[in-house]
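Lab meeting, item 3. Inverse folding demo.
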């Protein structure tokens, strides 16, 4: 272990000596002031009797396992500072997001580097420790000499995250610490990984993560989370931000979330949606959530059976914002009644002037009524090995589509 390294568990309890090598007290805490330097320890808080004294970084002449020696004895009583990030109070044992490991971890120690700056000796945060090695140090600190602990820990693998990746730089005096992970790191994660992270975080940290994302990324992540957690997160956000996220969600997902909220809250969010989104979501809210109507999505592409392949491709381009999971076009006849469907594979292989009815799948389209129970819907998907299933009303008019994702969500909820 390099001699220039020091751990928070070792720092705590170190004696502090004045110019005549007399003990002033012991280190109880250390703090950053991120707006001045994001990694340098700015102040050491030293217990002296019943009071805490503050030592600034430029007063430190040397730091070692034997203690801290001062080059300046001008000490002041400790006063709380809202811009201060304290290592023990605000970081140790706190949850942080490991953006590269795509998981939530708990900080069990902090690694510092001791640097000679000439006029003073500085202590800089380099890593947060999250593994068994740091737990071992904490268990035996005060039981065994520090040098023994260092030797005994050597066979245990290092498990840490570089401080620059943690990016914990914004202190919120109301919460003491806000985890301000880089939005770019979060937005580059797969929504399912981000959802797993949010489910492990506490309510305040979830809100901090969602607030840091753009509305589209936030909606994608929330779509992978249980509706109850979705509702809890959105209820904690500003109404305007929550409405922006809802507008980025598919209508069926937005309806599912609103059903989990108090009526007053859901009505307030509905009022913030634009007219088209509001109408679609309100229509879905009228259906029993355990029926095909409650499961379906109103985002689909439907064309007249007399339309051509060229017209169909034009419609797909217009719907490019939400067709990622689309696998078939739906065909309608008179009075918007469902008459068939065309797979995207057939569409791409056909000539531009070909009529859609000529490349439609053989036989009557498989469909369900809007009031069909969800158990019957899942059975239909399983029986016919479907990726999507059209939903019709009493007059056989197309009103929505259920996708495999919707069915998986139902099955997952039953477990």
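The presenter then showed the designed sequence:
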């Amino acid at each position: 272990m390099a001699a220039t390294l020091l751990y928070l568990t070792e720092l705590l309890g170190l004696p502090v000596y004045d110019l005549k090598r007399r003990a002033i007290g012991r280190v109880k805490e250390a703090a950053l002031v991120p707006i001045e330097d994001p990694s340098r320890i700015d102040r050491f808080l030293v217990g002296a009797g019943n009071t805490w004294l503050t030592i600034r970084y430029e007063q430190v002449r040397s730091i070692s396992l034997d203690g801290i020696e001062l080059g300046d004895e001008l000490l002041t009583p400790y006063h709380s500072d809202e811009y201060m990030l304290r290592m023990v109070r605000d970081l140790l044992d706190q949850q942080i997001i490991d953006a590269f490991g795509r998981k939530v971890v708990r900080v069990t120690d902090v690694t510092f580097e001791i640097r000679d700056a000439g006029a003073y000796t500085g202590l800089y945060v380099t890593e947060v420790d999250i593994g068994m090695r740091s737990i071992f140090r904490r268990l035996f600190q005060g039981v065994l000499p520090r040098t023994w602990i260092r030797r005994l820990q050597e066979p245990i693998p290092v498990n840490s995250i570089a401080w620059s990746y943690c990016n914990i730089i914004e202190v919120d005096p109301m919460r003491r610490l806000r985890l301000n992970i880089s939005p770019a790191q979060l937005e580059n994660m797969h929504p399912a990984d981000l959802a797993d992270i949010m489910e492990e975080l506490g309510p305040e940290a979830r809100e901090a993560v969602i607030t840091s994302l753009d509305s589209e990324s936030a909606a994608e992540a929330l779509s992978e989370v249980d509706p109850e957690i979705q509702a809890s997160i959105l209820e904690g956000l500003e109404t305007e931000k929550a409405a922006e996220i809802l507008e980025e969600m598919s209508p069926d997902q937005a309806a599912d979330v609103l059903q989990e909220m108090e009526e007053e809250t859901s009505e307030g969010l509905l009022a913030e949606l634009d007219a088209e989104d509001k109408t679609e979501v309100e229509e879905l809210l009228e259906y029993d959530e355990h029926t095909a109507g409650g499961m379906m999505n109103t985002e689909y592409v439907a064309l007249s059976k007399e339309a051509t392949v060229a017209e169909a491709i034009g419609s797909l381009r217009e719907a490019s914002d939400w067709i990622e999971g689309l696998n078939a076009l739906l065909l309608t006849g008179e009075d918007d009644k469902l008459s068939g469907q065309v797979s995207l594979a057939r569409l791409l292989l056909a000539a531009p002037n070909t009529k859609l009815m000529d490349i439609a799948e053989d036989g009557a389209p498989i469909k369900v009524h809007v009031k069909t129970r969800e158990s019957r819907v899942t059975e239909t998907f399983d029986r016919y090995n479907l990726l999507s299933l059209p939903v019709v009303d009493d007059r056989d008019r197309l009103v929505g589509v259920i996708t495999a994702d919707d069915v998986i969500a139902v099955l997952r909820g039953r477990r």
